[in-house]
Amino acid sequence: MQPGVHPFTLPILTDGLSLDFTTPVTFLVGENGSGKSTLLEALAWSTGFGMHGGNRDHLFTESAEGHALGRALSLSWRQRSTDGFFLRAETFHQFSTQLEETGTEFRRYGGRSLHERSHGEAFLALFEHRFEDGLYLLDEPEAALSPQRQLAFMRIMHSLASQRVAQFIVATHSPMLICLPGARVLSFEDGQITPVAYEDTEHFQLSRGFLNNPERYFRYLFDE
Description:
Blueprint: E1 25-30, H1 36-47, H2 67-72, E2 84-88, H3 92-101, H4 119-130, E3 134-139, H5 147-162, E4 166-171, E5 184-189, E6 192-195, H6 202-212, H7 214-222
Helix pairs in contact: 4-5, 6-7
């Protein structure tokens, strides 16, 4: 631990951190800067996944954000996984380029270079062809997905989770994804991490309120 140094200045770490991931799918929700991505990166480093995404074949560099917290974490496993994947939406392009540069066989990614697809198509190809059993740490997977493809991704998660062959920990802002049946939602708010029903999240309530009556929000936003 390095008190006074990021990421240990995050409010969620003030009193230490103890979390149990007891369901096949766990969503992490909260405002920007609440610590969701930092925690996910730390879990990825502790598990041996790559800095720009990937599995244990892609090294997580010493200088990567989340490394200090990763070293401070102590993980315990009911059944340790030897496979999985870490997805960072913001560095997915670098990950795809790395696959190209190393001459990676694209059979596990749908048989085509990820750069030959749109951003959303590449994400879905990854989910459909690369995800099997193992641990999947996903940072904003909805970033490149249309609403229709978010539903397709939910189907993939549900299929793997219902077989109990995969565990997902997902940081997201999507009010759609968090509705996945059987998933647990952890809210990062006011320096605390607490379980919450998806209907009680700001993501869901704000989206529902806006879609039901956008004019009400326009009057507030634009002083009309």
